[in-house]
Amino acid sequence: MESTLPSFWHLRVFETVARLESVSRASQELLRSQPAVTKSIVKLESVLGVTLFDRATTGTYPTAAGVAVLVRARKILAAAEQAVLEIADRPVAQPLAVATAITRAHMRAVIAIAEAKSFYGAAGLLAISEASLQRAARQLEQNVGCKLYRNTAAGVATTKAGTELARRLSLIGGQIEALVADVERFKHAEQTVVVGVLLLDPTILLTRAIRELSETFENAKVVVVSGGYDALLKKLHANNIDFIIGILKRPDYDAEAKEEALYQDRYCVVARNGHPLAKGGVVSLKGLREYDWILPQHGSPRRLAFEQIFLDGPSPRAKVETYSLSTIRLTLAESNALTVLSWTEALCEQRIGLLAPLNFEVPPPGPVIGLTTRREWEPTAVQAAFVDALRKASRELLLR
Hints:
single chain; alpha/beta; Arc Repressor Mutant, subunit A; D-Maltodextrin-Binding Protein, domain 2; 3 domains; 14 strands
């Protein structure tokens, strides 16, 4: 965790002042002096680089940026409180008080120990002395009132409770980073949506949604980030992208991801314009077997669709294996090779004029195209409008 990130305590002070609309009443609830509460708010504003409150004679009221921070802050505090409740049988104090006493040093320590499985290794990961790490780790254990560490042959590792606390604090750390990222976006005049798309993306869907968004928000900017699924999922949880659009993977290993199906696509066999198989009527399996193919690696959805086509007989040779659409496009355009693309991908290629789908029915099912978001994602007005535009474009595609 970076030292520039807000602490749980600063967020709790901020939430209390925002809820009570008063520094004096917040100081009474928190059992702190008014100068101490004011100092915490000033510190948080300095860290985030925005003004969080309008001060008036009648009270202290959140600014527009403050309202945006408040939504995230409440979820972060609730998650921290729940983490304490889950791992401690009898906390030594109120769970929220225990949670908000957890410092960045405490978080770094227990997360590193859970990863390195020893105090020595954790200190090396954090580039601090073992004494400093042990001090933070034991202080956290004392505050929580639960045994977080155990001796093993390799050194001191986390207990089951310690491992679970580390996991939860790591996720909450991501939420704190997301809060800071939200504020950074708020500070910029441009309204930005960052979309992660899988390597073969539904371009028609994106272009239609971008056009509609521009009609509503003329200053909106859409940033498209392409990549493989696992790489995009990491970017999603790091808040580097707002959501992923493409084939839904439904990963059972990621409980923090939420999926929304938009439409079910279908696959088709694609060749260059003027290909010998494009000159006649319905293409036969025998005809498909006479040509080389360009395919993705084994296990990918399009590779599985290819294998389904030739399920009852020998499969033709895969001349090239690649996920790159530009490589596929140029190789097909300069040869008689074939490939499998989704229907929306084929539509895009048909518009460009180099490639066209053949008259052959690929066995269902086709891929389910949809959105993958963080489960706790709270879209801005621009992001929500873009998602609505994607839904509308998907409904229009289904009508074709």
